[in-house]
Amino acid sequence: MNGQQRSNISKGLEVDIVLKADQRTGKLTRGVVKDILTKSSFHPHGIKVRLEDGSVGRVQHIIST
User: Fold this and answer.
1) Is residue 1 part of a domain?
2) 6-27 pLDDT, tens per residue?
3) What residues make up the domain containing 13?
4) DSSP string covering 1-61, please?
5) What per-residue confidence (pLDDT) applies to 65?
């Protein structure tokens, strides 16, 4: 699943995100969702989340449901 639909993402999911600093390279960071920061139901670049380690980025892939 991709991370463009807010309804696909919930707290506790393991996801791959792209950090703002890594947008040019596309380097992914894996972690567990702590907070969902995007309020809209859809975002073309991915829903913005905060991981449990404090990293903030847009969801590219959902690893576990």
Assistant:
1) no
2) 999 999 999 999 999 999 999 9
3) 6-62
4) -BSSBGGG--TT-EEEEEEGGGTTTT-EEEEEEEEE---SSB-TT--EEEETTS-EEEEEE
5) 63
